[in-house]
Design a protein that fits this description.
single chain; 603 residues; alpha+beta; 6-stranded antiparallel beta sheet; 16 helices; 23 strands; 23% strand; globular
Length: 603
């Protein structure tokens, strides 16, 4: 995150930054609270193009403002509402932001990881999203980037929302094109969209038509139906879609999708209305009845809602898990729905015991105070719930008394995890759900600047993490999973400590001295790095005096080679192959504080 824009900063005496949502070539996107609207959440998109020269920057700003003007005209209930465009100066640096509504819900990529989509559900989705496309096309706007990532199922009513229009991405391409003209060069075609989802004329030639969006929408529907990416469904030789071996559909519905996916844009439906007419001929919307996640509220309680479904979580093991969505509407209640092959009826929310309502309300308030991201927290607790109770796979929990024990088990896990997440710094905790591999690479660079290795950093992060989450396997690949986000948050805290000089020490040997004894104390979850310089061919002896089974000992070379790693041994001796800094890492494995002595001796 930019050092100038950080959580807690208030822009224009109006928008309080909560956390960063993402970043791209044109700047960063932030979640913020609108202080003029009772802290209602909104999205701020920072405009900071990576272009060179005053002409390019000026042209970029002009195009950005023009794009914002177009977005301002689009006022549809299934499109995030554009609020305003404003400029801000921070430390003599100018920024341009546009503000739009925040949509709380899961994108269809996440939903696809949690459930299967039936033909009827996909048909319903088409009837719900096609009018949105028809609306934007009537303004001459083409989305250009339809995919499961850019459609969100809104929590409040279950309707699909269309997000992330390609217009802002188009600005950079237009600037590059106009710069080429200024330099007397032939501009390259403007190519936007995701490979597999965008049609050939868009990806190869940079040309788009309204039915280019229809192509991407049909591709998205087939991904939802087959759980396969377009690259797995397209024949690389003939460039035709071979999806029928993965799913069986009404033949007429299949023909509609095939026509939407025609290679030549002239062979596709020309407009949204043409698709709607064709769909209505085989299955009128009035006959489609799919239960969504739309909550049924008890008006007297205005309850917070749970929705439970089955789905997948791990890209490694693809385990199915019980999915419990905590919707942020106030108090907690329970609702029904239909996911996969499971069906259950909507229940009377008054059946939920008052004590359980209060417990869930307290959990929700605790999560809010800790500023833990809603979607992330749901995924994290679900992951652990299924791990502990695999017998719940394949069924749907309800608000009936027979499921009281399972709801209570989920609540217990949620409570446990909130207590543990409270150990994180506020700065690291609010980023949960957004950490990426790039963030990890940045942490590596930071620790290397201290002349320390990433192995030492990870040792200290592991000590904190596994002390609070001892049920996690040390051999599991957590990256990409919700629990991996927690580990990265602890790693972020460790690097902050190291930069402040906490948890590491350089060891200097006095004149003619070959031995150094260091004494210290470790608390549960703590560790310490000792950095010392030795010469090639010296024999190094490391001796650790500590309570039995209380520590793990590691030794790393300056070239990040491991001489000893996560060892329960308390002695090591060996001839050094290189001159340079060596790191000796001691981490606690004990549930109690303890004193230790570390002796380094060379000859």
């Amino acid at each position: 995150m930019s050092q100038l824009i950080y959580p807690g900063l208030v822009l224009r005496n109006h928008y309080a930054i909560v956390r960063e949502l993402g970043h791209g070539g044109f700047g960063r996107t932030y979640l913020a609270k609108d202080q003029h609207r009772f802290d209602e959440l909104c999205v701020l998109k920072e405009f900071s193009p990576q272009v060179q020269g005053s002409f390019a920057l000026k042209k970029s700003q002009e195009l950005f403002e023009r794009e914002a003007e177009i977005l301002y005209k689009l006022k549809h209930p299934q499109i995030p509402r554009f609020r305003e465009l404003f400029r801000e100066t921070i430390n003599n640096q100018g920024y341009l932001f546009f503000v739009q509504d925040y949509v709380e819900g899961f994108n269809y990529r996440s939903l696809l990881n949690q459930q299967s989509f039936t033909e009827a559900e996909v048909m319903q989705l088409l009837f719900q999203i096609l009018p949105v496309l028809d609306y934007i096309h009537s303004y001459g706007v083409i989305h250009r980037d339809i995919s499961p990532d850019n459609m969100i199922q809104r929590q409040s009513d279950g309707l699909p929302m269309l997000i992330d229009f390609g217009g802002v991405k188009l600005i950079q391409a237009k600037v590059e094109s106009e710069l080429a003209v200024q330099l007397g060069q032939n501009p390259a075609p403007t190519r936007l969209g995701k490979v597999g989802y965008a049609p050939d004329e868009q990806m190869r030639l940079g040309m788009v038509y309204p039915n280019s969006d229809l192509y991407a929408l049909a591709a998205t529907m087939l991904v939802l139906l087959t759980r396969k990416e377009p690259q797995q469904l397209i024949d690389p030789q003939t460039l035709t879609w071979n999806w029928r071996k993965y799913t069986q559909l009404n033949p007429k519905f299949g023909e509609i999708l095939d026509k939407m996916l025609a290679y030549r844009h002239g062979d596709r439906f020309l407009s949204v209305q043409d698709v709607l007419v064709a769909l209505s001929a085989i299955n009128p919307p009035s006959k489609i009845s799919i239960k969504t996640t739309q909550p049924i509220l008890n008006q007297s309680l205005s309850p917070q809602l749970f929705s439970i479904q089955t789905g997948k979580i791990s890209p490694i093991k693809t385990n199915l898990f019980i999915f419990i969505s905590i919707l942020t509407l106030g108090f907690f209640g329970w609702l029904g729905g239909r996911y996969g092959l499971n069906h259950y009826a909507n229940q009377d929310l008054n059946q939920l015991p008052k004590t359980e309502e209060k417990r869930q309300e307290a959990l929700q308030e605790q999560r809010r105070l800790l500023e833990v991201d809603f979607n992330f927290f749901v995924d994290l607790v679900n992951e652990e719930f299924y791990t502990r109770y695999p017998e719940q796979w394949g069924r749907t929990l309800t608000d009936k008394p027979s499921d009281t024990i399972w709801r209570e088990n989920w609540n217990k896990i949620a409570d446990e995890f909130l207590q543990r997440l409270a150990e994180l710094s506020d700065q690291s905790r609010i980023k949960l759900g957004t950490y990426s591999i790039n963030d990890l690479d940045h942490l590596k660079a930071q620790v290397n600047q201290l002349q320390l290795s990433s192995q030492s950093l990870y040792d200290l992060a592991d000590a904190k993490f596994f002390d609070l989450f001892p049920e996690q396997s040390r051999n599991a690949d957590l990256l990409g999973l919700p629990m991996g986000q927690v580990w990265q948050a602890f790693t972020n805290d460790v690097i902050n400590d190291l930069q402040r000089g906490i948890s590491w020490k350089r060891v200097e040997f006095g004149s003619k001295k070959t031995q150094k004894t260091l004494k210290d104390r470790l608390k549960p979850g703590e560790g310490k790095i000792y950095l010392a310089r030795f010469n090639k061919n010296q024999v190094l002896q490391v001796r650790l005096k500590s309570p039995e089974s209380s520590t793990l000992l590691s030794i790393y070379t300056q070239k990040a080679q491991s001489l000893l790693e996560d060892s329960t041994k308390n002695r090591w001796s060996g001839r050094l192959s290189d001159s340079g800094d060596y790191q000796v890492v001691v981490v606690s494995e004990s549930s109690r504080p303890f004193d230790y002595e570390l002796t380094l001796e060379t000859h």
